[in-house]
Every structure is written in C-alpha cells, then in structure tokens.
Amino acid sequence: MHHNLSELSDLYRAHLLEDVIPFWEEHSIDRDKGGYFTCLDRAGNVFDTDKFIWLQARQVWTFSMLYRQVEQRTAWLEIARHGADFLKRHGADDEGNWYFSLTREGKPLIQPYNWFTDCFAAMGFAQYALASGDSQTADIAVTTFRNVLRRRDNPKGKYNKQVPGTRPLKSQAFPMILINLALEVKGVVPDDEIHRTIDDSIREIMTFFYDNERRITWDNVAPDGSHPDCFEGRIILPGHGIETMWFMIEAIRRFGGDRAVIDKCVDAIVNLIQFGWDDRYEGILYYRDIKDRPPVQLEWDQKLWWVHIETLVALAIAWNVTGRSDCRQWYERVHDYTWKRFPDPQYGEWFGYLNRRGEPLLDLKGGKWKGCYHVPRGLYMCWREFETMKDKA
Fold first, then answer.
1. What is the DSSP letter of 225?
2. CA distance linking residue 41 with residue 36, whole number of Å
3. Residue 33 lies inside a defined structural domain of this protein
C-alpha cells in the first residue's frame, strides 16, 4: 500500500497524542505512592505494582521530551516531575548506582546489577532538567552519566556471572546505548564529553560489530572482532542492529561525521530487515542464529513491539536521508504489518508481544520490559521525519 507523506505525518501525530499518551496519562500514574505503574493489562488495569527503574526513568524521559519538543503542557511536566521525585527519593543506593527494581512504596528489590538502568536514569533526569530548569536534577544526570562511562569496561561489576578469561565477548548493546544516551544528555553534560562518547562508540561499532562483507551488525564478538561459534557468538537480534544504526545516523546528522558511515548504516538497516524477515508469516523475528542453528532463546520467533516501531523509525530516517527506493519499499511493508497488528483499536496503545503468526501472545500493554517509551518515542520520531519530508517535497 502506498502512503503519502501528509497522511503518514498526521497518522503518527494523532496516534501519539490522541491514543498512546492518553493511555499512560490515565492508567499509569501512582497517585498514592509516587512513580508509575507499568504492569498494565489490555484495558489499563494494574496487574503488578513493582516498579522497574528502567521504565520509571524512561517515562520521565518521554513526558519531559514531549513537553520540550511537542507542546509545553503543564500536565506533561507534572507527570515527569512525579516520576523524577520518586526516583530521587528511592531509585539509587548510597553510591548513586540505580537499583533494577523497587516495591510499589520504593523499597529496593533487585540490586543495581544492570548498567542500562543507570543509562536510562541519566537520560530521564537530563530531559527533565532541560524541561524544568531544575539544577539538582541536572547534577544527578551528569553524575550518573559519568558513572556509566566509568563502568563501561565492566558494566555488571560484581554482579557479572561470567568466569573471566574463558570466552570473553564484547556486546554491541553497550556502544549502542552510549550513543543514545549521549544524544539525550546534550545540554546538561558538557559538549566535549558528548562528542567523545559518540565518536568512541561509533568507532567501536564500525571496528568490531559492523560486518563489511555482509553489511549487517553482530550482537556479540570476541575482543579481537572475531566470531566464536557458540550461542552468543552466532545470535543476531535484527531489531538491536536496526536501532543502533538509526542512533548512529541521528548522531552524525546532529553532530557531523562521515557520510560514508551513514550509507553503511542504511545498508545494514535494509539487510537486517531482510535477514530477520519471516517469509512465512511476515514481520521481523526477534532472534536469529547466523548459521540457522536453534537459538537458545525460546522466544526467538516472537514479533515484538519495539523491534517493529524502531524499524519504522530507522526506515523513515533512512528514506528521508538517502531517498533510497528500497528504504521506501521496506517502510511500506513494515508499516502495513505493524499498523495492522500492534495497535489495539478497542483499548488503545499497542500489544507488545505477538506470536509468530502475528496474534497477541500476551494482551498486556505494559510489564517488566514494556513501558511508556518505545511506542511514543517511535511515533514522535516518525512524525518528525515525515513532517520534514513533507516540507521538502
């Protein structure tokens, strides 16, 4: 199906502002204890009250970003403040490391083993500081950002389960999230630290994770860039690589950089979609083994919300930046699959987890991993791309 740019721009804007954001405004705010509920069933009822710092911080980010980029609605800033205050009170240990999860009241449940939590805390506080002008929040963002960089070489620290030395692997997830983080803390963290972080991360991805022959990215590699023949060494998450590539294009667009890298990123977006595409039922598979061996992840064949919305963002950006017809064709195809299956016309928001056939596997709207982040961010990004493309046309 062929979509025109105006219709696309309107679709994403309306769905963001009239469907997805109202769902979270209505159902996720914990008025009694602070912070947000993220475990929401299909209709928005709370089915679990634990609070996951990833998702708390990401929701602070979302409402702060909307306040800054879309419209200065007091209600949005208030929702962001509601989460930021809860996180300030309960989110971190005495050394400033962010717990993974808390009880509803804010008592720590799971230790700060997960370095991504700190990344999202820094992003959330940075955006809130920029939206509110609150200097204390800006300080938390800068301290957390520097803490993340300090832990870069050993992200899990004492919580790492691996025996050191036997089979060391580097993960694409780390340089990937650092690019995303650096884009979001601009204006709070000094520019030279941001540029250095982005340059180092892009260099690491292009040196170790980007496969110049296949023109895709690997998720895990040995420290010398080789590919151990083991579960982790063979696994590819198409969605991860696709998301990494759009972060890189966005960073080069905003801060300057090598145009040839953008072309390589666009190649990888297209090739990863092709590699991950399910020829039998359509949609993008969650995990694939590069040698087509059985993946260790039993959920390998699920169709996930974030994989599909991030792919739409990547294709919209790639189409806008290069005008390539293969980007447009894939955009149309992924768009039709995604919009037919993920949004819930009855209760709003998106299903997160579809089975291989594209039917809702779980009818939740939020849980331990899905919160108010990928869908609203993706809708905003696509709206922005189609808006600028429409103006250029």
1. S
2. 14
3. no
Q: Return the DSSP state at 208.
A: I
**Mean pLDDT in the chain?**
96
Cα distances (Å, whole numbers) of residue 26 to 69, 79, 342: 21, 11, 20
Range of the domain at 258: 170-301
Residue 2: the pLDDT is: 75
- E strand or H helix at 184, and its extent? helix 173-184
Residue 338 clears pLDDT 70, i.e. is over it? yes
3-state secondary structure of 350: strand
- Confidence band for 1, pLDDT divided at 50, 70 and 90: low
pLDDT tens for 247-262 read 999 999 999 989 999 9
102, 126, 161 — which closes off a domain? 161
Q: What is the mean pLDDT of residues 195-201?
A: 97
* 217 φψ region: left (φ > 0), alpha (ψ -120 to 50), beta (else): beta
Residues 177 and 206 in one domain: yes
**118/240 same-domain check:** no
What would the two tokens of residue 171 be? Answer: 């993960």
Q: 314 in a domain, yes or no?
A: no
Sorted by sequence, the CB contacts under 8 Å of residue 161 that are 6+ apart come out as none
- Residue 361 gets which letter from DSSP? E
Confidence of residue 167 (pLDDT cuts 50, 70, 90): confident
CA distance 168 to 221: 9
Cα of 81 vs its chain's centroid, Å: 21
Reply yes or no on whether the pLDDT at 161 is more than 80.
no
pLDDT value, residue 153: 77
In the block, which residue shows the tokens 């980029």? 69
Residue 147 CB-half CA count within 13 A: 25
pLDDT category, 322, cuts 50, 70, 90? very high
Say how far apart CA 76 and CA 367 lie, in whole Å: 22
Say how many CA atoms lie within 13 Å of 37 toward its Cβ.
Answer: 22
Question: DSSP assignment of 130-171, as one string?
Answer: HHH--HHHHHHHHHHHHHHHHTTTSTTGGG--SPTTSS--EE
Phi then psi for 221, rounded to 5 degrees?
-135, 160
Structural domain count, the chain: 2
Residues 147 and 180 in one domain: no
Query: The whole model's pTM is what?
Result: 0.97
CATH code at 252?
1.50.10.20
